Amino acid sequence: IRIEGAEELIKKINSIEKLNRVKSAIKQAGQLMKGYLQEYPTASHRPNWMLRGNSERAARMRRGFFAKLKAGEIDVPYRRGQSAGSEKLGQSWTVRTDSQGFRALIGTGVSYARMVQDSARQTGYHRQTGWITTNQAVRLHGGEVTNLIETALRREVESG
Question: What backbone phi and psi angles, to 5 degrees, belong to 104?
């Protein structure tokens, strides 16, 4: 018995088994999400409400501010990513794929990232100034990422 087209079918199955297009799409999706997390919000100039008032806490914060200013630890006006000790959160995000290529891991090692972009720990100030959280990135852009991977999977199956 001879089956016509068996070679082509086996070749297609072997190609689909590797899922190279899907792996590439997963890596690309990770880069997209990284890009969304890297975006700095537009500059927001507003008074720091914690420095206002006559409370002991406000006075202590003012003293700390002027001591750091005098020591050169901070600059006025603040320049994003250029202050002393800045870890440059936006630039720190990385993407790495697992050994199989079916998972993209997006992360940052910046010490203060959780206060700025973690959904559960983001401070009110960072929320007000427009920093996107990881959950917001998924909610806003997850559909785009899913479509990218689904399209790659469809193309993989169709073309083999």
Answer: -105, 125
Contacts of 68 (CB under 8 A, 6+ apart): 74
pLDDT (tens digit per residue) in 53-64? 888 988 998 899
* pLDDT, tens digit (0-9, with 9 covering 90-100), for 64-112: 989 988 998 887 766 655 544 456 888 999 999 999 999 999 999 998 8
Give 125's pLDDT tier (boundaries 50, 70, 90): confident
* Distance separating alpha carbons of residues 139 and 123, to the nearest angstrom: 19
- Cross-strand pairs, 96: 105
Distance, C-alpha 6 to centroid of its chain: 45
CB 37, CB 93: distance < 8 Å: yes
Tokens of 118: 């973690």
Number of H helices, E strands in the chain: 7, 2
For residue 23, the one-letter residue type is K
Neighbouring residues of 145: CB distance < 8 A, sequence distance ≥ 6: 29, 32, 33
Q: What DSSP letter does each residue of 25-91 carry, written as one string?
A: HHHHHHHHHHHHHHPPPPP-----GGG-SSSHHHHHHHHHHHHHHHHTSS-SS--TTTSTT---HHH
Q: In the 8-state DSSP scheme, what is residue 99?
A: T
